[in-house]
Design goal:
Layout (H helix, E strand, L loop, with lengths): L2 E9 L9 E9 L5 E6 L5 H7 L3 E6 L2 H13 L8 E4 H7 L6 H8 L10 H14 L2 H24 L3
Helix pairs in contact: 5-6
Amino acid sequence: MEYRAYLDIETTGLSPASCELTVIGIYRENGSNDEVIQMVGDEISRSKLIKALKNTSMLYTYNGSRFDLPFINAKLGLNLAEHCDHEDLMYACWKQKLKGGLKSVERQLGIARELTDIDGYMAIQLWYEYVDQGSKNALSKLLRYNEEDVVNLRTLRERLSI
């Protein structure tokens, strides 16, 4: 059974040298058995990520070739492009004159989002609220945000007719 997968990561910042992976979110679809897989904090490992992407024929990201995949490679020693084909939807957006980050492109295309008040900076704050204060609510919100990202990548791919 072959899957398409959509991947997005959350981190404590932009540099893998000084920052950590906090969440890896994956939305796997094959038409009948779709699922969201999320690894959090200490659950994140090379072997778990390889297992989560088993039977993936195509991996989609947004800005993943410049951020997500290099960050994962730096932190886990795993080059995902060696495990499955990868398409960065950001470049397909650029070809259609859709510029900006994922949330901006979603707005331009009318792709709905429940959590409109969260961005990458807020995701970092939610992580630290969870780690420092044990806030399950903060973690829940962070995971919902990440899930919206990966699910909306599928919608974006469909809107781009890819």
